[in-house]
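Structure first, sequence second, as always.
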C-alpha cells in the first residue's frame, strides 16, 4: 500500500541561516520509495497536500505533476 508522508529537512542559506523545509515522501509497504524535497517552507500547506494525496490515492507517477500544480496555484482544497 502506498502512503504519502511529510518529509522534513533542515537547509542552510547564507542570507537567512538555517531553516526547515518540507517535502513529500512516498512509502510503499512501509519503505520510502521516493521523495520530493524542498516543496515549501510552509508546513501546514505541505501537510494539507500530503493529506490530499492520501485521500485521493494519488498514483506516484503523478506526484511531480501534482506538486507542480500545487506550486503554480499554491492552494490546497
Amino acid at each position: 500500500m502506498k502512503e504519502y508522508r511529510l518529509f522534513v529537512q533542515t537547509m542552510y542559506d547564507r542570507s537567512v541561516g538555517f531553516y526547515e523545509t518540507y517535502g513529500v515522501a512516498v512509502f510503499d509497504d512501509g519503505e520510502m520509495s521516493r521523495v520530493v524535497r524542498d516543496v515549501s517552507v510552509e508546513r501546514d500547506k505541505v501537510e494539507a497536500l500530503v493529506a490530499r494525496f492520501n485521500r485521493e490515492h494519488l498514483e506516484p507517477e503523478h506526484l511531480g505533476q501534482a506538486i507542480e500544480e500545487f506550486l503554480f496555484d499554491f492552494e490546497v482544497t
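Margin note: The chain is about 30% helix and 45% strand.
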